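Dear Dr. K.,

Following up on our conversation at the group meeting, I've run the structure prediction for F-box domain-containing protein from Favolaschia claudopus. I'm pasting the input sequence below exactly as I used it, so you can double-check it against your construct before we proceed with anything downstream. Let me know if the numbering doesn't match what you have in your notebook.
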Amino acid sequence: MLNSLEADRAFLAQTEAQILELEARVSALERSLTVLRKTRRAALERLNSYTYPLSTLPNELIGEIFLCFLPPYPQPPPLVGRLSPMCLTQVCSQWRDISLTTPSLWRAIDLTERDWLPGAEAAVSLADLWMQRSGELRMLQGPLPMLRSLSIRFVSSSAMSRSDAVVPLQNLPLLSTVVLDDLRIPHVALPWSQMTSITLMCIYSTHCASILRQTPHLVHCTLQLWVSHEPQGDFVDLAVPRLEALIFKADSRVDVDFFRCLVTPALLRLELPEGFLAISACDPIESLATFISRSACHLRELQITDSYSSEGAYRHAFPSIATIVVDKDGDYDSD
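The predicted structure tokens came back this morning:
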């Protein structure tokens, strides 16, 4: 009995000592916690009072800084990723608002970047989104004083099927380079007289002749011609006085009178299928000699594609041309 009593008294004393020790620890922890809470509160107050330097600038200036984030126009930025203007809309609400109200951020788009797109619908949806953010590219009907290069490809036949569906582009004082791809090219009204470089794909030769008559300053021209079943136009004296480089795509088809009446006195480089030169069963070398004589040009470079003649035959006929390349069935035959 006495042994049990003494054991309980010892256990009680030990327990009270442990409780006192733990209470002391808890008190110390509470004091430490109080200090940490005060320190954290002070840090939060300092952070809340801190203003990021960029946020103190006017929104218009921040928008100009954002423009420096883009590659030089007309090079388009990536559609997605760190270098896309899309990422600026995801930083904070202020940056999103500024990005969405800065049309110049969305001034160029490259829809050939298809790796991440699930299909054509996604591309159309993305293009529509960028057009909206650019302040509506339908504003192409208004002045575009800084536009230097323009590339248009029509993807909807219904949109351009009406005879009155013309895309009027006016007040383009710096525009000098144009790429158009579709048979509806005549529906685009452009200041052709100031163009120095044009690429016309899938265009009827009659329409092409009409455009070339309006290009006195044209220096470089790439064409993919289609033969029209409509009555041929008037190709008499189709002169392009300053043209230096003329390229016909290999799958072009030409009306007989188009090439015969083309006059290019400044031409230095010519690339075309041999079929262009063999129209109406004419000898291609003789046809080319007639063209050079009629134009009074001094060719420096000649490339013949889809040729049945040898490169040697061309070199023998035109010794004054420094560079002659003949492509037979896709393989270049060089001496």
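Two things stood out to me. Residues 155-166, 330-335 have pLDDT under 50 and may be disordered. The two ends are 123 Å apart (CA to CA).

Best regards,
J.T.
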